[in-house]
Amino acid sequence: MINIPAILIFTPPAIALGIVVFRLIKPTKEMRIPVLVYMSVLVLLTLFGFQVFLFNPGIAGFLILSGCLCFMVSDTILAYYTFRKLKVSGSVLIMSYYIIAQTEIILGLLLL
Description:
It is a single chain. It contains 4 helices and no strands. The protein is mostly helical. The chain has one domain.
């Protein structure tokens, strides 16, 4: 089942956040389309996580939604460091969020 009101509530902030992140990371001209496609996939992942949370509002739904959000944060930091060509590495931060995201999603799925 799909919760249509949740999609309508979720979409405007997701678009606004996508615009902000896109401007923040400033991808090169040839990478704009691939970055937009990948950002869209991440937003869909988070939307599905939100849907799971709405239908399973317990710990399992929360873990899945939280994992999706951590995944989005991880990839946003990765894109920022990649396209801004920063000398400081965010590897520990990126991998921390990535591992937390994967762990939460798997634990949430196991608890469903």
